[in-house]
Design goal:
With 246 residues, the protein is of the alpha/beta class. It has one domain (6-240). It is 59% helix and 12% strand. It is built from 9 helices and 7 strands; from the N terminus they run H-H-H-H-E-E-E-H-E-E-H-H-H-E-E-H. It has helices at 6-30, 33-39, 42-47, 53-89, 123-144, 173-181, 186-189, 198-224, 232-240, and strands at residues 92-93, 101-105, 108-115, 149-155, 169-172, 225-226, 229-230. Helix 5 (123-144) links the parallel strand 3 and strand 4.
């Protein structure tokens, strides 16, 4: 592997993290209250003794944004990993289904699926990922007659030790970043540039979020409150009423 220039990594992160912030803001601006109310669990918020419209709207909105941000930032980390591998070992974006990155190192061809965190999927998704690995390895060996292939589930953060489930390697945190860079410190080196203009971007996001919360709260009070109280029956009917079995 070629040595990795942390200056190149800093420049890449500084230039591309703005996409994450733009996506956050764009997601916020596209939201409609009733779309959120249809997707989130009203029973959970009732069980938490939510009593005000503003608190309910804030909770629904935060839950929606959290899942959206995790996906968007996961996409950014995937691209960062491809960039790093491109610098160190001519790594490239893979065209294979379920594979994000391919690179060669020490006569081993690596097929990597990049996940942002350890809780990325359920048992069905793990099973599909394993199938994708098997298919990609089979196609690669048929086309290139390459026998030394390693499938890798690369997880960008987490302290779990490396494991070897049947057919692939599962590598976390520092070990993942080391695998694609041979730098023991890359996992900590990237934390500083991720904060580039973060305060500025977050301030703009929070200003827009405050407007959305106020707007949605007024709309919620008009449509789902009666006499100043949340009309939970009306809310649940809107969220889940769909009887067609009679």
């Amino acid at each position: 592997m070629k040595p990795l220039s942390i200056a190149d990594v800093n420049t890449y992160v500084n230039n591309n993290i703005i996409t994450f912030h733009k996506n956050r803001l764009a997601t916020l601006e596209r939201l409609r209250l009733k779309d959120i109310l249809k997707r989130k669990n009203p029973y959970l918020f009732r069980a938490k003794d939510i009593t005000t419209g503003s608190e309910l709207v804030q909770g629904f909105l935060d839950a929606h944004l959290s899942s959206s941000e995790e996906k968007s930032f996961g996409d950014f980390l995937e691209q960062l990993a491809i960039f790093v591998a491109g610098k160190t070992c001519a790594g490239k974006k893979s065209a294979a289904t379920g594979i994000d990155l391919e690179f060669d190192d020490d006569e081993v061809h690596y097929l990597v699926s990049v996940k942002s965190g350890p809780n990325w999927g359920n048992s069905s998704q793990y099973k599909k990922q394993k199938t994708d690995f098997e298919t990609a390895i089979k196609v690669l060996k048929q086309n290139n007659r390459q026998t030394n292939v390693m499938a890798v589930l690369g997880i960008c953060y987490g302290k779990t030790k490396t494991t070897y489930p049947k057919g692939y390697m599962k590598v976390y945190g520092q070990n993942f970043w080391y695998l694609i860079s041979k730098s023991q410190d890359l996992y900590t080196d990237i934390i500083e540039p991720l904060g580039h203009k973060a305060h500025q971007h977050n301030s703009a996001f929070l200003r827009q979020k405050t407007k959305i919360v106020n707007q949605f709260t007024q709309e919620f009070l008009n449509d789902f409150c009666t006499g100043g109280d949340i009309d939970w029956i009306k809310l649940v009917r809107f969220n889940s009423g769909n009887l067609d079995l009679e």
